[in-house]
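go over both lines:
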Amino acid sequence: MIEVRFDASAFITWLRRAGAQAEINARQTLGQGIALALAHAKATQAFKDRTGELRSSITRGQKSTWSHFIRAGAKHAAYVEYGTKPHRIEARGRALRFIQHGELRFRRHVNHPGTKPTHFMDEAATVGARFLDWKMEEAIARAFR
């Protein structure tokens, strides 16, 4: 009788170790991509943050091991991101008070011209996604060398 053996146990051991290392590398790369997107959103010059409220409301979060997000939590973040159409603003009290051409003005209502969208969060997401596309394959390949 002649017997030929095929033993893949060493390969399976190597594959498990490489898979575990690939997961570690992928987590690190994901964290770096989220950090890059967060930094980009906070550093953007697409809008003027007069009070600092919008920039300070930009935070990162995690839904699960592989699901992360960045969020702009300020009440007016969506208006800055998507812009506004021209609209009328009515005074809640007796009058609106504002300075126009150096003069103090009072009005019961004003016609706001609207604002242009800045898409600062969309740009941050694009920066993060491009980084992940570029780096994730490299991170996985490093584990299997």
